[in-house]
């Protein structure tokens, strides 16, 4: 398939796909691959395979909200826990394609947002995945053209971008609009506010051209827009209790979880140790994440984008399960999702085992754990 056809189909998917209601994504392949053997940190001498596996395949996005995966792979922290079982990373640009890869058996474990997690679980009647841990909270902002929008009330009548119809930020923005008392048709994006579904890679150019007046987007896109002259007028974390909400969690194929529990625990140990290292080595962690992004995309983030983006993120082992239920409720309210049964979407027993061994408190599944 040609690059132009692939790009065109991906743009079509970004506009037409509903990630809360459809798993399939009309794009070629499941994601680009990168093995930890490409890193300076390799398999330790004398190490043994975990669960007899040659590799564990981990999916994630080349995105700061997936910094646990970026840093864990870059610094070899997952590899250290897996011994002679090599880490093979695959990167994705959209949640539906990562869910598709998990369902097809192309990856075993993934770092992903809450909406595609809900989608993947409900569309297979609870048979495809489990959420096994947290990764990141926060990192989503409403940024606008200050010449056109000076207050939140000024958003009415303007064109605001979200990354994709039905994705996590799209649902959050539609819910905020509804709470303002404004009306928007969720499918078309038309109404008191024009919701313009735009790929994050295109959003900065759309802003510069004036085709949008602002965007409700994750980092680093929000900070890229600010670097272009936009102004932040709302941090989504201020809308949540304790300013915490899930932006990235960890999922696993139920088949892999059942057949390779030691490998799952090893990845979770790597994640817990990575988050601890990130939170105690901010500057080094930020540099490691940026180095990983440069390796994946060919371009590092400049300081005026990286620094403010990093400050808005919180890296946590807690999946913040109660906020997942709230996000699902928001999607139902917006008319994008039939009320889902999320019972059993979490299995936090392996994570809590890892946390207990590390002397850390256990985390809650908010009553949505597997029985």
Automatic annotation (TrEMBL):
Residues 1-29 form the signal peptide. It comes from the Bacteria. Keywords: Cell inner membrane, Cell membrane, Membrane, Signal, Transport. It is found in: Cell inner membrane; Periplasm. Coiled coil: none annotated. GO terms for molecular function: ATPase-coupled transmembrane transporter activity. Pfam families: NMT1_2. Belongs to the bacterial solute-binding protein SsuA/TauA family. InterPro entries: ABC_SsuA_sub-bd (IPR010067), NrtA/CpmA_ABC-bd_dom (IPR044527). NCBIfam families: SsuA_fam. This is Aliphatic sulfonate ABC transporter substrate-binding protein.
């Amino acid at each position: 398939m040609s690059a132009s056809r692939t790009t065109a189909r991906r743009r079509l998917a970004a506009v037409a796909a509903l990630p809360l209601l459809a798993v399939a994504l009309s794009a070629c392949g499941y994601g680009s691959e990168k093995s930890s053997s490409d890193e300076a940190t390799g398999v330790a001498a004398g190490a043994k395979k975990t669960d007899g596996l040659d590799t564990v395949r981990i999916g994630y996005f080349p995105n700061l909200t997936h910094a646990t995966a970026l840093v864990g792979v870059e610094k070899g922290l997952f590899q250290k826990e897996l011994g002679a079982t090599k880490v093979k990373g695959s990167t994705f640009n959209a949640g539906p394609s990562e869910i598709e890869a998990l369902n097809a058996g192309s990856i075993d474990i993934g770092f992903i947002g809450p909406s595609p997690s809900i989608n993947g679980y409900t569309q297979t009647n609870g048979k495809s995945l489990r959420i096994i841990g947290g990764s990141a909270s926060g990192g989503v902002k409403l940024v606008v053209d200050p010449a056109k929008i000076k207050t939140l009330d000024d958003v009415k009548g303007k064109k605001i971008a979200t990354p994709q119809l039905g994705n996590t930020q799209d649902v959050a923005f539609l819910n905020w609009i509804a709470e303002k008392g404004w009306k928007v048709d969720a499918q078309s994006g038309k109404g008191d506010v024009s919701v313009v579904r735009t790929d994050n890679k295109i959003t900065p150019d759309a802003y510069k051209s004036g085709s949008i007046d602002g965007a409700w987007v994750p980092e680093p896109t929000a900070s890229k827009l600010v670097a272009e002259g936009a102004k932040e007028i709302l941090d989504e974390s201020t809308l949540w209790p304790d300013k915490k909400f899930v932006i990235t969690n960890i999922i696993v194929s139920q088949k892999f979880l059942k057949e390779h529990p030691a490998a799952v625990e090893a990845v979770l140990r790597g994640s817990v140790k990575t988050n601890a290292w990130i939170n105690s080595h901010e500057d080094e962690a930020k540099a490691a994440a940026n180095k990983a992004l440069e390796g994946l995309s060919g371009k590092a983030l400049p300081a005026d984008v990286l620094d403010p983006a990093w400050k808005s993120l919180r890296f946590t082992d807690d999946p913040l399960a109660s906020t997942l239920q709230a996000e699902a409720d928001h999607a139902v309210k917006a008319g994008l999702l039939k009320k889902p049964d999320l019972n059993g979407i979490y299995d936090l027993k392996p994570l809590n085992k890892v946390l207990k061994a590390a002397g850390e408190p256990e985390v809650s599944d908010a009553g949505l754990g597997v029985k």
